[in-house]
Amino acid sequence: MISSGLRQALQGRRYLLSSWPWRSALYLLSSVPIGLATLISLLLLAIAGSALAVVLIGVPLLLMLALAGIPLAAVERRRLLLIDSTALVSAHREPESPGLTAWARVRFKERATWRELGYALLFAFVLWPLDALVVGMALAVSGGLLATPVVMATAGGGEEVRVLKLWLADSYPQAFAAALAGALLLPLLAYPLGLVAAVRAALTRQLLSSRDVEIDSRIQELGRSRMRLVDAFEAERRRIERDLHDGAQQRLVALSMTLGLARLESPGEPLRSLLAKAHEQADKALVEIRELIQGIHPQVLTDRGLKAAVEDAADRSAIPVGVDLDLPGRLPEAIETAVYFAVCEALANVAKHSRAARADVSGGVEGGELIVEVRDDGVGGADAMTGTGTGTSSAGAARTGTGLQGVADRLSVVDGHLLVSSPPGGPTVLRLRVPCPSFRTRI
After folding, report:
1. Cα–Cα distance, 39 to 206 (Å, whole number)
2. Do 199 and 64 have their domain in common?
């Protein structure tokens, strides 16, 4: 695909006044010395390696021949920036350990290495001669016409000269007419030169680019954007919780106290009963807003971490819940939030659907992962795909619900996974696994 900048320049009126003609010519001309160096290097490595392979000295040379496309591809990616502003990303992976052996092991296993070797062979034997031919023809035609008067005055003795080996000019007016034609033809040749350079660059990009690398980079960017959205959502949720706590909740507390004082000072009916009813409604609203704040983002999670927040949720559960979490410190905030709400949703489903008498939450950090299990002694039969089952157990919601899917969705934002074991008759075990390579300790 031709770069957008060069394509727009070719279609515009100011192409000849821009830097694109010179950059196109430089791109094509620079391939000549690089191509010659590549051709000589490949031939020397192939000949010397084959001749010396019998005594094993040539084996390293043959290995170098197989890797010859790597430096050429690096040069081509930089040279491509002359006419294409979009950088071509390297398709190579970084070795997991330092050292030449680890680097070579990775390179020989990569498809990109062999693709770049094929490009080096094509470049050395086909592409750079074509680049030289295109630029040489453009310069030879325009330069030959421009030099007609000079050639006629020197080599032709001022009498005649053969122009471009095609026709004979036997007078200076004809020679200067040929030079004028060359001057007019020179800017016109800049257009096909730019088009050839653009096609040549597009071919290089196509041969050296790796679709796997592009997909991986897009996946990484999607992951980063998802984490940015998660962080922004958590910040907004904390802001709403703070506003409710410091604003609406405080006003309701003040209203409830005022109504209580009014009840004490009011002597008669029916005003006393109306004040009592208003006081009761204010207390209910205060309880509801506290529960709302707790559901948005519990303060205990922010202040004391995941273990304390899960213990608090267990205390508020409709059925007895035991908690045994062994956490070495504070985990990343996004992980704590996702796991806390996933556990809360699982416990809510236990209370609603499992018919369990007890549930237990246990886990810790093992091998770079946070593993949390929610176990109940209910009827089991949860469906790991739909969240429903024969008894609609703890992991799932009701037959029309999405409880299990909700737990999985909460974990997915931090690259976590949900595993379910729920045979008919129970018990049901939910295992939450979240990558957690590092944690920090807070006092």
Report:
1. 21
2. yes
Residue 122, C-beta contacts closer than 8 angstroms, at least 6 positions apart: 207
Asked whether residue 244 falls in the same domain as residue 178, the answer is no
Amino acid at 49: G
pLDDT-derived band at 407 (thresholds 50, 70, 90) equals confident
Shared domain check, 308 and 175:
no
Looking at per-residue pLDDT, the higher value among 201 and 294 belongs to 201
Question: Nearest-CA neighbor of 70 among 25, 103, 24, 97?
Answer: 103
**Whether residue 427 has a cis bond before it, omega within 30° of 0:** yes
Q: Which residues form the domain of 369?
A: 300-435
328 inside domain: yes
d(CA 160, CA 311) in angstroms, rounded, equals 104
Contacts of residue 418, Cβ cutoff 8 Å, sequence gap at least 6: 342, 384, 404, 407, 408, 411, 430, 431, 432, 433
Nearest to 281 by CA among 263, 251, 256: 256
Cα gap 410→368, rounded to integer Å: 19
Q: Are residues 200 and 141 in the same domain?
A: yes
Helix (H) or strand (E) holding 389: none
For 432, counting Cβ atoms within 10 Å of its Cβ (0-12 exposed, 13-18 middle, 19+ buried), the class is buried
Indicate the Cα dihedral angle 326, 327, 333, 338, nearest 10°: -20
- Round to whole Å and give the CA distance between 304 and 320: 22
Same-domain pairing of 186 and 259: no
Judge if pTM exceeds 0.85.
Answer: no
- Residue 228's pLDDT is 65
Q: What mean pLDDT do residues 2-23 have?
A: 69
- 234 has pLDDT over 70: no
Q: Is residue 233 part of a domain?
A: no
Q: Which of 296, 314, 333 is the last residue of a domain?
A: 296
Apex CA 230: angle with CA 224 and CA 236, to 5°? Answer: 140
- The reply to whether 356 and 409 lie within a common domain is yes
Q: How many domains does the chain have?
A: 3
Q: What is the pLDDT of residues 114-167, one digit of tens each?
A: 999 999 999 999 999 999 888 888 777 777 777 777 766 676 566 666 666 666
Say if residue 311 is in the same domain as residue 292.
no
**What's the pLDDT tens digit per position in 173-217?**
777 777 777 777 777 777 888 888 888 888 898 888 876 655 665
Tokens for 237, please give them.
């949720």
